[in-house]
Amino acid sequence: QILVINPENGALVSKIPIPATEVTGCCFGGANLDILYVTTGQYGSCLRESQPHAGKIFEVKHLGAQGMPGRSVTL
């Protein structure tokens, strides 16, 4: 799950359920940076059997939140 925390007072605002126990990261994306992408891990064969969604990337929409744009880099 993802916890939504109020940055001003540290209070828990809400919880976003993710159908996998090993959340490994999240970031905002999409044209308006309003889609939260959540990555999950898949460690061991026991998770593959008990959690068929482990190891996938999830897309969470309609959060009412927006990410900040990253810096452009030319490699």
TrEMBL record:
Question: Per the database entry, which stretches of residues form a coiled coil?
Answer: none
> Record's PANTHER family?
REGUCALCIN
**Which intervals hold domain SMP-30/Gluconolactonase/LRE-like region?**
2-41
Its taxonomic placement starts with:
Eukaryota, Metazoa, Ecdysozoa, Arthropoda, Hexapoda
Organism source for this protein? Answer: Laodelphax striatellus
Could you say which protein family the record assigns here? Belongs to the SMP-30/CGR1 family.
Q: Name one GO molecular function term.
A: gluconolactonase activity
What Gene Ontology terms for biological process does this UniProt record contain?
L-ascorbic acid biosynthetic process
Organism's domain of life?
Answer: Eukaryota
- Give the protein name, as stated in the record: SMP-30/Gluconolactonase/LRE-like region domain-containing protein
